[in-house]
């Protein structure tokens, strides 16, 4: 009988195991992970940017913003102590017209409201941009000097090692496929029929988290949709067009993950992306995934409502064009990096899949969602910049559990 069983050895489940074992002596904690290694899904397949929260609206994304801000110091110190990659490349958010520049002014306000120091995010004129990134075309930009290229997979593995030393048991290669709640706790059944018992369950299963919540009869009002983010590796002369991340201002705040950027990875590689193509399954890294089973997942009405939104359908078509033709993807980035050459962007890079929650009105839910039963807590919609904010969010979950007397 464990005190806590966490489903999911991604960055969130692992950070939670680390924090729980650090702060509660003698507590029996297990992490159940279906893969043989941690961070095999979203946590190891992302843009690798430790995001500073300048672009997060404190009203609608307050939790993500607060956790990214609070985690920054932890990650910086942890990377130093463990000798993990930490490349403070910075991000230039480029405005293509005056409306976008006005939005950057809003970002500057948000950066301060979210607790960033004044000098971390600076508004630049087109002239000033030219002096630091001569190949970038824009009417002005916001420069965040502290955005950092990291390896979230390496962070997760290091947290796992520390958590293990603090007594956490990592049960690997076991897919949970049934969960039953009774008056003393939870019984978790894995694919091989083995049962694990726990006083309290925390569901951090990323792309499978909603499915597990539905098994337990909660969060039934929500559906989720999967979007695959694909990158193209930038080679040749194009790889040196910029020395920092270049983002453009999202055109659709509701679908803010849709606009591709030029990214500098922690090892110096550069990539463009990601796309956000709708796919049918949380692990559909190639092809379409399991079309019919995803469409039939309940509740169907949420997805239907979203799919009658013509703007959403138009954006989906555009995203698929970018996957089918590197030229289409490159042309989107050329709007702010006109010298980028198609022939330098032909090799596929990383691909990761996000699971975005859709409510009954057919709208994307902007914030992380927590749902509880008597003996379980389910973390849903833990999307970008979730990797950046994982240590602080893990602490937030602990406080949440303490309030409910679970810890
Ligand atoms: C394309 C893309 C780019 C991104 N870029 C960034 C970025 O630059 N910066 C940033 O901060 N964030 C970024 N994010 C978001 C970030 O990667 C996620 O918020 C974060 O990794 C989520 O971590 P997690 O632990 O919740 O999920 P995951 O990493 O998906 O972990 C969940 C784990 O649960 C396991 N699991 C699932 N079902 C079961 C089961 N039944 N039994 C046992 N185990 C199970 C899975 O195998 C998996 O290991 C990006 C996301 C995407 C998709």
Bound molecules: flavin-adenine dinucleotide
Averaged pLDDT, please?
A: 93
Main sheet makeup: 8 strands, mixed
Query: Could you tell me how far the N terminus lies from the C terminus, measured between alpha carbons in angstroms?
Result: 15 Å
Quick one: CATH superfamily of the largest domain? FAD/NAD(P)-binding domain
User: What name is given to the CATH topology of the largest domain?
Assistant: FAD/NAD(P)-binding domain
At the first level of CATH, what is the class of the largest domain?
Alpha Beta
Strand segment count: 19
**Structural class of the secondary elements?**
alpha/beta
Protein architecture, described:
The protein is of the alpha/beta class and 407 residues long. It folds into 2 domains: 1-48 and 151-222 and 366-407, FAD/NAD(P)-binding domain, CATH 3.50.50; 223-241 and 250-364, D-Amino Acid Oxidase, Chain A, domain 2. 33% of the residues lie in helices and 25% in strands. The protein contains 11 helices and 19 strands. The strands form 4 sheets. Strands 1, 2, 8, 9, 10, 11, 18 and 19 form an 8-stranded mixed β-sheet that branches. Strands 12, 14, 15, 16 and 17 form a 5-stranded antiparallel β-sheet that branches. The longest helix has 21 residues, at 62-82. The chain is globular and about 65 Å long. The mean pLDDT is 93. The structure holds flavin-adenine dinucleotide. Flavin-adenine dinucleotide (FAD) binds next to α1, β2, β17 and α11. Flavin-adenine dinucleotide (FAD) is lined by residues 7-13, 32-35, 40-43, 46-49, 51, 175-176, 204-208, 229, 274, 352-354, 382-388.
